[in-house]
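Hi there, hope your week has been kind to you so far. Please have a think about how the structure follows from the sequence. I've dropped the whole record in just underneath, so have a look:

_____
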Amino acid sequence: MKRSAQTGLLAVLSFLILGSAAPVLAFDYLIPDTGQDLCYDWERIICDEWHMDGPNQVCDSDPYCPEEGEDFYGQDAQYTINPPDMTDNGNGTVTDNLTGLVWEQKNEDNDALTYTYNDAAVYCENLALGGFDDWRMPSRKEYSTILNLSRLSPSLDTTYFPHFIRTNPIDIYYWTSSDYHDDPGQSWVMQLSFGIIGTGSKGSLYKIRCVRGTPDPSPAYTDNGNGTVTDTVTGLMWEQKTDDGGNRDKDNTSTWKDALAYCENLVLGSFSDWRLPNPKELERLVDLSTSNPAIDSDSFSNTANGFYWTSSTCVGCHKFKAYAYNFSDGELYFGVKYKDGNYPENYTRCVRTADDSLTTTTSLSTTSSTPDNPCVAEEIYGASSAQAAILRYFRDGVLSKTAEGRALIELYYRWSPVLVQALRKDDQLKKEITVLIDDFVDIAGSR
């Protein structure tokens, strides 16, 4: 007995996503969440009842997060995507189970030691720890993955990294291997009191925490042709900005509250589950090999030289500041949300998770018009082909009538941009998928 057409479509989708196209679609670099679990307004944690304890405000009721549609909805604590997952190996090392990197844990004695940049590199090269001798200095992107932005001094999970020794003001800085583009005599350093990223002269004396494992992969961007770009390494889909004076214009700025609302209300590329990125996500867009702007300008041509908001409040910065990236050079600092009656503005770029099952439904079209995404069938046969017409008829007349069918439609168009790029590069893959779709069209056309 022949399979039903809907089952046939599911088989095609399964092949596209799990079959020979898997190397293109495997999102093999998971970015850990920041650990931030409280929501903030302009100045402080969102809480109904407060009292003063000396100079400090103390929340007397349970903190809470805003509901959808309310002010400040969409901040970091409201999205759980890749919860941190670490293992203390009991031998002075910690494994990050999401990135696969293994970190030097440090102890009370060696955390306090400081080195020049070159001496820090030698320390890591000579380190023998946990049965391994392939340690190295971490890049700043790697180091950013273990930051815990719910904490202050250090901005690390002290369950796994319990030692943070401070004897002088510079003991908050840790080396990375990443050079500062505008001055090779400087390197990017992690400031672990607040979890920000700045620069330091390579002759300065800072701390070092070594790492081992496969280096963090570079982004692999796919322009989806609909105002969005997908990083096929992480699965993050990014908003492209325009230069047309419209809602997405590169020169638009807003307050932190309005930046949150802008992303929550954005409908782009047939998706409505956009959000303001957290610092670890926005870190992936920073291109350290260039500046002004420090980003891949081929994929993100309309990028301003200035600060871009993130969804995360800087808990150690008196809470009236949120982390922000300066895309002039890539610095992670903070933007002031509110101060002395002023509400400063910064730039905004939204993100969504391509396989995100946690966010809101999409605004995908289920009418006869094709959604604004590259379509695999049209790529193979042409938009006016009989095959494409049969598939559109089946989409609108059968699949769109049920929740399961609409989910299949969404799945198809979610992956189409990346699949189209794969087809253009791999003739054998195109042949195999053509055979599958031909079989499916025969089934669908007989209904």
